[in-house]
């Protein structure tokens, strides 16, 4: 079994592999170690059991907290900014709730702002957008190339709504305007058997949705983690470095309600009423935020 301690006073990550007698749990094993500055001592006095420890030290950054880059693909409507903030602020709330030590960095990709080095952060989140992934817009093409670069490097990436669709579209899948029309309000997605890390097959989670485009064909190597009645590919994963969701964990119900009011004529009365009624349900936004931070941090540092 391997252990690590990221709370050492010195900037070293210590991996411990121990072989010990039966009846000692992981917590007991960790109690054998004392971290003192840059020195490490191990004893075998507890319970009088023998302990054989092999240590491997790997240098890590002094700033060992996780950094997440938000690739901002849209602006919040001006009349809603004062009450709800911009999209990076919305993501900041759920991500910091999951891990208060996380640092959030925002990139204005619509203006061509990207990190100088993809390892500037531990992972990226692509926000939603009012545009479509197949629109003939330069910044969308540039984002598509960046996604391909991240994929080749196996860099951690989480795509939300538009980001979910961008990943599929630019990695060999297909995104189109759905024959089902607009999906708004709170939608329930059910886990497949491929998602044991997130929930049992058939169990579900709720997120606010606001989309007309859908992933019609996932990118090669994609695994379907969840689906809904409206969206067959509502949660996808590619290998161990890309996770995408059609729903919006960053959207509060109040924000969704305001969007529905502002776009009532666009959605149509039936869609509007259905969406408003659905907002009486609760969402699993903060749980999804935890999934996101766990996914990005799984090999961070």
Overall description:
With 301 residues, the protein is α/β, with parallel strands linked by helices. It has two domains: 2-59, no CATH class; 67-297, Rossmann fold, CATH 3.40.50. It has helices at 26-30, 78-84, 87-98, 138-153, 162-170, 253-262, 264-267, 269-278, 285-297; strands spanning 2-3, 12-20, 33-36, 39-42, 51-59, 67-71, 103-107, 123-126, 156-160, 174-177, 183-191, 204-211, 213-217, 222-227, 235-238, 242-245. The strands form four sheets. A nine-stranded mixed beta sheet has the order 7-6-8-9-16-15-14-11-12, sandwiched between helices. Strand 3 and strand 4 form a beta hairpin.
What structural class do you assign from the helix and strand content?
A: alpha/beta
| Widest sheet: strand ordering | 7-6-8-9-16-15-14-11-12
Number of strands: 16
Count of helix runs: 9
Helical coverage, percent range: 25-40%
Q: What is the alpha-carbon Rg in Å?
A: 22 Å
Shape: globular
- Please state the second-level CATH architecture of the largest domain: 3-Layer(aba) Sandwich
Low-confidence parts: 1-63
SSE series: EEHEEEEHHEEHEHEEEEEEEHHHH
